[in-house]
Amino acid sequence: MVVHRKLQTSRFELKYIIDESHATNIREFVRSYLEPDEYADPDQGYSYPICSLYLDNPELFLYRQTVVGEKNRFKLRIRFYNDDPAGPAFLEIKRRVTDVILKERATVTRDGVFRLLRGDAPDPAWLLGTNGDAAAGKALLNFCSLCESVNAAGSIYVSYRREAYVSPESNSLRVTFDRELLGSLYEQDTHLSLRTDGARPEIGNGNRVILELKFTDRFPEWMRDLVQVFNLQRVSVPKYIHCVDAMGLSPRRPSAGESARREP
Q1: Which of 110, 151, 157, 261 is deepest in the core (most CB within 10 A)?
Q2: Is-contact 243 235, C-beta < 8 A?
Q3: 16 SS3 class
Q4: Is-contact 186 155, C-beta < 8 A?
Q5: d(CA 132, CA 41)
């Protein structure tokens, strides 16, 4: 069975680092406005695993784009939610254009992912459950084109557990709590698999939680109230960057001038 996960193709994301005691109170606040994500597992604290294989080139060009604070940048990742070889995977292009997050996604077979990572030319037969969706076909071609443009290949897995809440009326609002962030090496010519080994960045470990407020239009008044009531301080939390650093794979650190261009 193909799992269809709703995608906000254009949105704003505000990120915060909180501890578990705050997470408990913020959860109660959020539940007044949103409901648990349809994939939430009550037996697992209304959470579920997320694993993304990030692609980059040997010089970590896409890593560097984020580290130096490029305003218009992109990430390439292959997201999946279980070890089922018949389950779907999602090719995702995540762009940042100033403060707006733009996404493209194509749902593909695991065999298609294996062939893509092996360097095969994109094939519409890889697409899964799209019924000829032109947007999915375009996303597949764009993903492969961007990979080729920067010589990107499988780099590292970024894994965590997500507790998510969504608007019952639409896909315009979303609040997520991410825990147990883990970075793991990708081994060439292997199939996708959930990871349990690797390096854990300081952020997101122990009682630290990554809170994200996501919205597609204006900042909702109740989210503004949430930030004020809990005195939340917005931070930049690029999971791929933190995992690369925790694994000791990061290249030369940027100069003082480059650091000054990082996001606040």
Answers
A1: 157
A2: no
A3: strand
A4: yes
A5: 32
Structure tokens at 66: 């984020």
Q: What is the DSSP letter of 232?
A: -
Any idea where the domains of the chain sit in the sequence?
A: 10-259
What distance in Å separates the CA atoms of residue 74 and residue 175, rounded to the nearest whole number?
22
CA 50-52-53 angle, to 5 degrees, is: 155
CA dihedral 245→56→184→180, nearest 10 degrees, is 70
Tell me the pLDDT band of 261, cut-offs 50, 70 and 90.
very low
pLDDT over threshold 60, residue 7: no
What CATH architecture applies to the domain 10-259? Answer: Alpha-Beta Barrel (3.20)
pLDDT class of 11 with cuts at 50, 70, 90: confident
Calculate the alpha carbon distances from 120 to 69, 70, 113, 116, 148 in Å: 32, 30, 10, 5, 11
R_g over Cα of the chain? 18
Which is nearest to 154 in space by CA: 187, 181, 183? 187
Q: Write b or e for each residue in 242-263: b if 16 or more Cβ atoms lie within 10 A of its Cβ, otherwise e.
A: bbbbbbebbeeeeeeeeeeeee
> If residue 30 lies in a helix (H) or strand (E), which one and from where to where?
helix 20-30
Q: What is the pairing mode between strands 10-19 and 153-166? A: unpaired
